[in-house]
Amino acid sequence: MRVTISGGVHGNELLGVYLVKKLQSDGLSPKELQLDLLLANPKAIKECRRYIDYDLNRSFDKAKLMQDSHIYEFERAKVIKDRLRDCDFLIDLHTTTANMGITIVLSSQEKLSENVAKILASEFEEVRILRWFSTDEGAFINSIVPASITIEVGPICQGVLDSELFFKTLKVVHRALDILQKEESMDEEVECYDIFDTIDFPRKDGEIAAMIHPEFAGRDYQLLHKGDPIFLGFDEKEYFFDRDACYGVFINEAAYYEKGIAFCLSKKSGI
Amino acid sequence: MRVTISGGVHGNELLGVYLVKKLQSDGLSPKELQLDLLLANPKAIKECRRYIDYDLNRSFDKAKLMQDSHIYEFERAKVIKDRLRDCDFLIDLHTTTANMGITIVLSSQEKLSENVAKILASEFEEVRILRWFSTDEGAFINSIVPASITIEVGPICQGVLDSELFFKTLKVVHRALDILQKEESMDEEVECYDIFDTIDFPRKDGEIAAMIHPEFAGRDYQLLHKGDPIFLGFDEKEYFFDRDACYGVFINEAAYYEKGIAFCLSKKSGI
User: Fold this and answer.
1) CA of B218: which chain A residue's CA is closest?
2) Which CATH architecture fits B196-270?
3) Which of A191, B22, B40, B90 has its CA 20 to 30 A from that of A174?
4) Pick from B155, B213, B257: which is nearest to A159 by CB?
């Protein structure tokens, strides 16, 4: 089985960058697996930015992969698509400023990916499974491989390393490789969360008019009830949640401000 | 007295940007004070980056202010120097990923600045005074005005707003204006910290080889003893502090990775 581990799809998410570098210098090569270690966006990594011209992790849809482009990430996406043409399984490493612990994001319904995610979630207390199947902006890197997990680790600021979360994530990655190598599987149902909508900040003339409410900050994966405070305006006006109870995730993720996402809504489910 | 409040000297430190915008929309104009509200680096603010070509807050030394330059920040520094030519007092707003609370940074020995800092530190529990008089990289914006305080607020991730720290900082800024307006002064000595050195990450061939140790993370302004762990290597090697006891500040500040600073050393003193 050919497995790729990618870090630095977003260049300022240092955990993935340095985890891939560590695995490179360790010379890790599990039996039964052909391992490819990928620093996905070298230019953004060098400049410690999320991306140079466009979000690389929204650059893998067919239209973008077909056109010649002045956009660095569109060209990089083609190079990565070619490099991953024989890849069987991708582990893509990210961080988030939201209080998400170690979240395994699944971006399609696929048996092997689900299997790895389920075993990890059942064995590690801090690991949760989140399903997020589509965005309007463009396709994830996961779309070019047959099976994959994305690992989102937080809260970590952009441009910063967190040694505790680094080694926790490393353990999860090692175990994922182990699962793939031994072809372990799991039949029991495991808890997961499904993103079904996103909520933007209140705005005035396009400008952000309110921040995440102090009582909502950091409450990822906690039940959000109708009537709970979610935003606090610069004028100190409070905004309350007016929908049916569900679970907030990616609350106050730095990279989503520009995408018009203050947080995502998810439902608890089973997989 | 002419007072300037600047936000967005670093474009991804959103607290200052939105605090200045709030004051603009509030139309605040204290008696006795002429208030100028400055969004210092509009291009970096638009792109939510620290800077475009060079750190604006290291762009105010004479050599840089004299030369014609292709560097956006050097040109912006000249514009700001001209705009602030009659400014008597500058309040410059920043955030840090370090656990610094609300830190008033003083960058020169000057009576009015010290006075404002002392009153704020004596009245607000979360406010501390830190003196940092020089860097090798270039002069701060404070160097072009006769008196100033820099307010560093943390921990806050780059590109993120924190509503609790936003309103705490707003109170401190209002009180600073109040002190300036009433020309209050304070004779009693107040505790402060003096930065006397900086410590880089352990490196191998120029590359970072270790992270801030979990036991040291977040311990800004706490006494660091000889023998305390400070770094944890990617190979799990521990590094220990081998100098006389002092206080770490700016521990794991994102923007200082590229400056070769993992944290700063400070001594407790009085002002």
Assistant:
1) A162
2) Single Sheet (2.20)
3) A191
4) B257
